[in-house]
Amino acid sequence: MSDSTASHPIWSNRLTYILATTGAAVGLGNIWKFPYIAGENGGGAFVLMYLLCILLLGIPIMVAEVMLGRKGRANPVHAMLTQARSAGVSKGWSLIGIMGVAAGIMILMYYSVVAGWSLEYVFQSATSSYIGKSPTDVAAGFGVLAQDTTRQLIWHSAFISVTAFIVGLGVTRGIGNAVNILMPMLFMLLLLLLWYAYNNGEFMRGLTFMFSADFSKLTGASLLTAMGHAFFTLSLGMGTVMVYGSYMPESQSIPSASVTVAFLDTLIALVAGMAIFPLVFASGLEPGSGPGLLFETLPIAFSDMWGGAFFGTGFFVLVSIAALSSSISLIEPGIAWLEKLGITRIKATVGLALLCWIGGVASIYSADVFSTLDYLTANIMLPLGGLLIALFVGWRLGYTRVRKEITGVSNGLFNIWFVVLRFITPIGVIVVFYESIKGLFGA
Ligand code: TRP
Questions:
Q1: 192: Cβ–Cβ under 8 A, 6 or more apart, which residues?
Q2: For a Cys-Cys bond, which of 174, 178, 187, 234 suits 169, CB 3.0-4.6 Å?
């Protein structure tokens, strides 16, 4: 057995758990994905469905998933194995862990490409390369990047290398230290951008777009997108919060930590929306313009603003930081698993990073690979993982065993959570799956 199995690492304090998990949650999902999928799905009604999914599916599953990790004190695969064994149920439940490790790698295969776009825009902002150009030219700049495979390859490789470097340093020394520096920077940069949008964008129009619901636009497919995004943005259903939970100090309350993280993540998504939509409208663009939205809109806004190069650099540094604290969480479950199988952390890191790198190259060359990886993971694997976690904790683990690990809440609150997890959460996921499949066949 290796050393790491004898002494499983623990975050140096409670705040580090919160920062690491918030860092995992807040990422490209909040700043890049949320604005453009909300745009593609009509705005308000979609935002409302997404918030509902956070509340009824996201938070209950997060509590369950973190609990499995802390109780098992191991990576997702072994944590599930131990729990299944102690509850006397099939070892097959550990497949949740294996599917999770795979999903994390698959997400990173396109996530890193988008993070690379963000690095490119840090570079372009810092060198003032789009400053003073016409809005059409600035927006077209993203199309040029999308065709430039060499450039994307360089940034993707750089991003994967930094991710691997931090993760390779270890849980407390690498991930813990990184989030303690990165997260405060992220909060400050975001407030700065909100202030800018308030002063320079069409702020009210942005707000109206986000919060006025037109339910006629809501289809089965957009419902699935909203649910998938709730899982994606909270980093649920694949073992990220399970492995981070396995490093959580014993004295920390899982429900209050989970509510804090879900609240911060939702707040940051809404604030990012409030910062970005006003600029979209002020730039004369459409919010439904797809994955390029962020990289077309914001440079336009910065291109004719006083200090645009400076604020533009700051903004894309923010996006890159958010991406980095998430990407380390996508790869950690797999690394922790390989370590337990006796592979050194360095070898595990290099191996998995290489795999992500290869997948990223495929995503750069093929938009189909890119969008298939995104669709499969966010809309299918994560909700399925979440559903299985809810069923396992709700129906297989047993009330007393679960109650012991969930501290810091009254029996009343605990019971509400447990009932929601047993009934509402699984039914919710199944109904959304069903509605979207029905939609596929045009019924
Ligand atoms: N939540 C991150 C984001 O919004 C992405 C992410 C990190 C993730 N870890 C995850 C998504 C685990 C799903 C599962 O950008």
A1: 311, 314
A2: 174
What residue spans of 202-307 are helical by DSSP H?
Answer: 203-211, 220-234, 240-246, 254-282, 293-303
Amino acid making up residue 274: M
Give the 3-state secondary structure of residue 369: helix
List the residue whose alpha carbon is closest to atom 8 of ligand 1.
235
Report which DSSP code applies to 304: T
Under a CB-based contact definition with an 8 Å cutoff, are residues 176 and 376 in contact?
A: no
Query: Which atom belonging to ligand 1 lies closest to the Cα atom of 30?
Result: 4
Interval between CA 432 and ligand 1 midpoint (Å): 20
pTM of the model: 0.94
Q: Is the CB of 240 under 6 A from ligand 1?
A: yes
Pocket of ligand 1 contains residue 182 by CB under 6 Å: no
Instruction: Tell which residue, 391, 407, 86, 102, has the closest CA to residue 239.
Output: 102
The pLDDT tens digits of the residues spanning 278-308 come to: 888 888 888 888 888 899 988 988 898 778 8
Give the Å distance between the CA of 231 and the centre of ligand 1. Answer: 8
- Pocket of ligand 1 contains residue 386 by CB under 6 Å: no
Residue 142 contacts residue 295 (beta carbons within 8 Å): yes
37 lines ligand 1 (CB under 6 A): no
The residue that leads in pLDDT, 168 or 301, is 168
Other Cβ atoms closer than 10 A to 166:
22
Q: Helix, strand, or coil here: 351?
A: helix
| Structure tokens that stand for 193 in this block | 């951008």
Taking the C-alpha atoms of residue 335 and residue 343, their distance in angstroms, rounded to an integer, is 9
Mean pLDDT along residues 229-243: 96
Cβ pair 105, 352 in contact under 8 A = yes
Residue in 255, 233, 245, 234 with CA at minimum distance from that of residue 80: 245
For 203-219, what is each residue's pLDDT tens digit?
A: 999 999 998 888 887 88
Q: Where are the domains of the chain?
A: 2-441
CA of 423 to the centre of ligand 1 (A): 25
Ligand 1 atom at shortest distance from the alpha carbon of 330: 9
Q: Residue 95: is it exposed, middle or buried by C-beta count within 10 angstroms (0-12/13-18/19+)? A: middle
At residue 5, the pLDDT reads 45
Q: Is the CB of 319 under 6 A from ligand 1?
A: no
From 421, 430, 424, select the one nearest 389 (Cα to Cα).
421
Helix intervals (H) in 73-176:
76-87, 95-126, 135-147, 149-168
